[in-house]
Amino acid sequence: MTHTVEKIGGTSMSRFTEVLNNIWLRKKNNDLFNRIFVVSAYAGITDLLLEHKKTGNAGVYSCFAEAEQEDAWIDRLNLVEEKLLAINKQMFVGADLEDANRFISRRIRDAEQCMQSLHSLCSYGHFQLEEHLSTVREMLASIGEAHSAYNSTKLLKNNQIPARFVDLTGWKQERPLAIDQMITETFKGLDPSKELLIVTGYTQCSEQLMRTFDRGYSEMTFAKIAALTGAREAVIHKEFHLSSADPRLVGEENVVTIGMTNFDVADQLSNLGMEAIHPRAAREIRKGGIHIRIKNTFEPDHLGTIIDNNYCNPRPCVEIIAGRKDVVGIEVFDQDMLGSPEHDIHISQTIKELKLQLVNKEADANSITFYVAGNRKKINRIMRLIEEKYPLAEVKMHNVAIVSAVGSDIKIKGMLARTVSALSDAGINVLALHQSVRQVEMQCIVAENDYEDAIRALHFSLIEAENHGDVIRKIAV
User: Of 239, 258, 282, which one is at a domain's C-terminal end?
Assistant: First the structure.
């Protein structure tokens, strides 16, 4: 295990000159090689290909799937091509630009022809478009990653660095393989000690990654490659440090960079939309006994944050104040609920089918509240479905925010009281409060417009007042 597997996020990829200088051309242990890079699409491209991750605004896929305007998806696909060619123009000139444009335009045209044929085929009653939509979604998503990986390889070669484009998208492959087989066969014969391997963040496989991970597919590709190739370390390059809070809210001078934490904390952050890594992807890496390092792309000298399976803070404390304000509380009051799990089971299943994120839920004798995140169209749809299923129930929607105190060990007497007092002293009303017996997180539900003040109040009381300092790192680069 002499190599690392490293993932570069889309925001970082868009600043390709800094990625080149801060990551690819920067030696690790006096060596440019023994590194495998899994790259995401450039920032915003996957939103254009599928749909906007946060707002739900239509992309190529959603226009094709909803078919409200028959040819709207073609216009969107042409818009994507224009955007990709514009990125190419920023990176290359002359023959290199022509080659880069030819590669991505060919993919775009192949996808367009495939979707046109599918649309025509499904005009016959024996074929249903819905049965093929997941495959279309996977095909479109792969375009962004193929574009960034191909361009990155060309950029490295232009800088006299041996590099290889490793295409896991299975473009025009006769049949999909299982993901383990796809990765194992693709990497057979490749030698990261002699060239940088630039890998697409999307992997075509028989399991269809997007059915389970949706937009987290690149993290699963990254995790599988790390586990199957026996990496000594898995590195994630992001545009920020993993810190004690969002520096834009509490001030850069007040945040503490987290030196070490564990996978349990990473899972809690993922649940709040602050994904260090998808929990299922993290499980693959944990099974391989590999630790993860989170690094800031734009501060290459910083050692970053180690996520290690066995780490526990030697001094119990709150390490991170995190949260999200794009949360809706769906409250269902029904006296028929008493003593029956039916409402919980049915509504939870509906949330899963609509691909809404269930952040938390709470219940008493005759009511249950689900805290979910997702686009407004899906929120409105689940409200209608609940009302149709339970016509006698009273269903309400609350726009709320969640603020959380998270740590590898927060089993401290009085911590819950301190948390509530900090919010109360700041004039913030706590609408609901959640803490599990494992005591790695405390979640406070507050009004949406209290979110930023709540983050600042908890960070000041639970972290700044404690003067943590950076946690000592026990694992070298």
Answer: 239
